């Protein structure tokens, strides 16, 4: 690196540090709520945050969206969160087992699974049984993540054996491979099909084999703004909050 | 069967336009200052620098002629080149260096090694055949480079500043050595150098190059005697005297005696700079110079604020004096004069 | 200077020490001998070595082109060929889809004519790894070529060597230290590659699930195994980097003496 660029880099670094410091101080004044939410909630909760801010101009919501397991790891390591929402009960159990929660888990939504297929369903897939066809490229989530766990259970319930081409580390991996046209089908959350809009289509999975997952929410033990955090949880449970979740395909708890 | 070259090309800020020919067995020295285009001439002859205009013919084969889209790759030209810093391959032994060209020409390995060994023996590096170039002295590296360039039996040998990489202490011995080895090569040879001593000692003919143009050609003696410009006079205008040194004095073939300050015995040549020569009408008795020679002025040349005199006699010399001194002495062609020079002003080189 | 250097060393050493500190040593052997882990490791070594070989095969000529020839837009070509170093790997994976996927610019013809789909194959892993790894080789070798004295190459040509013969016997030995360094860097990058691989090739045990992918997935359910597998990867890379670096410094010393 040329030394000439050094002052510029130092200046940029200083600017970023000072601006970060500014944010910190303003945070302290307005009582910000940091929400750790499962990534499947990204779109719904972003809108939820805007609506909450409109109703509570004093409060400000900051989100950290990631896989539920990642969020649990971050919480365990002491990440500053006020609210935690998991995409399943098992990850929430890790939090309650470690006594990292200040309030009891409350379900705020349910999610269920669907088959995601390419735009216009070019391969004419109508049922789970179709996924077993050898000329189809099917991708699933790995069983270590909630969407993979669900898919495995559904296939077991329906007694269908398929050979996926890939076991993705997250549900978006399945969605993107189907929307990119590399895969013909996958099993994802209903909300993911909805979020994909017209780049993909969904095929329902019969309720008798489908799996339903819960989205429990808690105030964390380390919450700095417990009151505002509880206000946010109440907002999510309220009619306007539930309407937003429904809009993104979530089922009522 | 000659080398005929008409080279016009532009490299960076240099605009080169030269024309010359070299006969078999002849060594042409291209002499000039740094940046005059000397190395570019060699690179053009070797094919490392395609020319813009002109034509290069080696032994009747056109190797570069932009007008007819002719260009023979360096690998296919019958040229050998010795580079300025010798450019030996550092990771290969002397033997592998010398055998490289033969191997590149698909000579079988055993045959290539045998022929390389012959060359190594010829240049006296047998004991160093397995050494890497890094382990060689400057003179040994030069001989290895020469053997490498000659091993492929080129018709044209190119030498780029063959002695400039050497320190002053070894240069004289290596120059003598190089002359010996070059004598056995009967092809055409082109050498570039900025050192007139190299040109004098090694070349049959000299071409003076200045800013991309050849300003004068001829034997070294011709160029020395009749420099056509102040620049050439400065560059090559020195008197070079052959002879044998014994008991602190050099004696020429014509019997002239030159007293020297300090010189080892044996065949040598002495360099007497024109401006260190004193010209007087009468023999100077009260001078510290022990070298005084009588002669007759045969030529007078005015070059700027200087005048060059050709004084013929037992020791023919070219002297250079100021216009003021020239006018004070009122010298004319045919006048008898004495030339003298201090022993300490004379440089001596073993021949 | 020394104090800052020590800070730098600690910066790299502490996370490693952290991993070692948290590693469940009593169960390490069980995790390592796990069939799935071994499969991922074998696949990782296999694909990263292929990626390195391809990087050398195509990267050296590319470096030569950038270092030794003049053509309009050369800087743009250089920037283009090193773009994948700054591109987020996941974006790189998506871009590879658009180029070589079943509906990609080139991939659609492969699929249409030969019924060949590159994604989800081991070859796709190699392609993704090569895509992110080759720039390291190109940059290292190009720098070495630029610094290299061209006189020996010229000498080789006047001695009757074709460009290729001269390059192989004169230039390559001279840049060998840089070539080894570049290849090792590429290999290390390929071995650790995650984002482009999972995006473009997917993740399936034995076919496309390399060690980093296995570590990432294991982390969700079995963080202890993830740590052990990470340490194994680190140990392998560390050994290779240390041994090769020593050799390559030795070579550099040699050439310095000779030149």
Number of structural domains of chain A: 2
Under CATH at level 1, the class of chain C stands as: Mainly Alpha
User: So what's the oligomer here?
Assistant: heterotrimer
Structure class of chain A: alpha/beta
Radius of gyration of chain A (CA) equals 21 Å
The number of helical elements of chain C comes to 13
Low-confidence stretches of chain A: 18-30
Number of spatially distinct domains of chain C: 1
Q: Percent of residues of chain A in beta strands?
A: 15-25%
Fold and architecture overview:
The complex is a heterotrimer of chains A (253), B (351) and C (259). By secondary structure, chain A is of the alpha/beta class. Chain A has two domains: 3-109 and 215-247, D-Maltodextrin-Binding Protein, domain 2; 111-212, Periplasmic binding protein-like II (D-Maltodextrin-Binding Protein, domain 2), CATH 3.40.190.10. Chain A contains nine helices and nine strands. In chain A, strands 1, 2, 3, 4, 5, 6, 7, 8 and 9 form a nine-stranded mixed sheet that branches. In chain A, helix 2 (42-55) runs antiparallel to helix 9 (239-247) and helix 3 runs parallel beside helix 4 (89-97). In chain B, strands 7-8-9-3-10-11 form a six-stranded mixed sheet, sandwiched between helices. A five-stranded antiparallel sheet of chain B has the order 2-1-4-5-6, covered by helices on one side. A five-stranded antiparallel sheet of chain B has the order 14-13-12-15-21. In chain B, 26% of the residues lie in helices and 35% in strands. In chain B, a hairpin with a 2-residue loop joins strand 12 and strand 13. Chain B has two domains: 3-236, P-loop containing nucleotide triphosphate hydrolases (Rossmann fold), CATH 3.40.50; 239-350, OB fold (Dihydrolipoamide Acetyltransferase, E2P) (Beta Barrel), CATH 2.40.50.100. Chain B is an alpha+beta fold. In chain B, helix 2 packs parallel to helix 4, helix 3 (109-122) packs across helix 4 and helix 4 (138-150) runs parallel beside helix 5 (168-183). By secondary structure, chain C is mainly α. Chain C has a single domain, classed as MetI-like fold. Chain C is 81% helix and 0% strand. Chain C has helices at 2-22, 28-32, 35-68, 74-81, 83-86, 89-100, 107-114, 122-147, 151-158, 163-192, 195-200, 211-221, 223-258. In chain C, helix 3 runs antiparallel to helix 10. The longest helix of chain C is centred in the last third of the chain and has 36 residues, at 223-258. Mean pLDDT of chain C is 87; it is low at 251-259. At the B-C interface, strand 7 and helix 2 of B face helix 9, helix 10 and helix 13 of C.
